[in-house]
Amino acid sequence: xxxxxxxxxxxxxxxxxxxxxxxxxxxxxxxxxxxxxxxxxxxxxxxxxxxx
Length: 52
Known about the structure:
By secondary structure, the protein is mainly α. Helices cover 37% and strands 0% of the residues.
């Protein structure tokens, strides 16, 4: 952060624990600021096989 600029790390460098913390923050932001719910992968009944 120099002169108000932000530099964000790539998510490819995150381990599993840190990635889940990041995703939880994304889900929280979406819920609070966008009134949007992002379900966990096991909380949806979307048929992924249909789109392969």
